[in-house]
Structure formats: structure tokens, C-alpha cells
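Late entry, written up from scratch paper. The run itself happened at the end of the previous shift, but nothing got recorded in the book at the time, so transcribing now.
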Amino acid sequence: QVPLVESGGGLVQPGGSLRLSCEASRSIFSASTMAWYRQAPGKQRELVATITYGGSTNYADSVKGRFTIPRDNAKNTVYLQMNSLKPEDTAVYYCNRNTPLSYAWGQGTQVTVSS
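Output as recorded:
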């Protein structure tokens, strides 16, 4: 069983939108604060957004007002709705717990924002 599976990335123009999905195993998802991270080549991994099991959210300053991180506890799925995308949002996006489980990192999904 794959612990975390990210999907939904792609190539979009600046100003466009994408919705990423992360399907998690029940053991990872249940009662956990989930997070989206991103990493561009040559850069450190960056925490993008978090959401508690009860739905409280926090966002990095760089994405605040543009991204949202809803979750569906019944489906063990967390989403990242990305609007008003900028070239600097280009990265591989990963999900995990807010306190990440090292064994659970998935393949990520590539987001490229370019004209």
C-alpha cells in the first residue's frame, strides 16, 4: 500500500489555476495535521500550507490569499487549490503530515508555471 499519492500537477500559464490531490492511507491521515510542501531544483523544501483534522489552516506568506488547502476526512484526501499561479510557484509538490513521516514521502507532482 502506497502511503501517499499526489496528483493533479501540470503546465499552466501565469495567472492560471490547478487543484492538487493527495490520497493518504487511513493510518497517516486520521487525526493528523496534513501539509503540502514544495521543492524546486537546488532549493530547500518549503512548507506551503497546513490543515488540522478539524479544518484549521495556515499558509506560507508566499501563497496566502492565492492557495487553499481543503480536506475530505471521509476520503482520506487533502487538496491544494492553487489560483493566480506565478512562475515562482514552479516546483514539485508533496504532501505529508505537518510533522512529516520520513517513510511516507511520495513521488510528488510537478507544477510548472510558464508562458
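The CA atoms of residues 13 and 114 lie 5 Å apart.
(Scratch paper discarded after transcription.)
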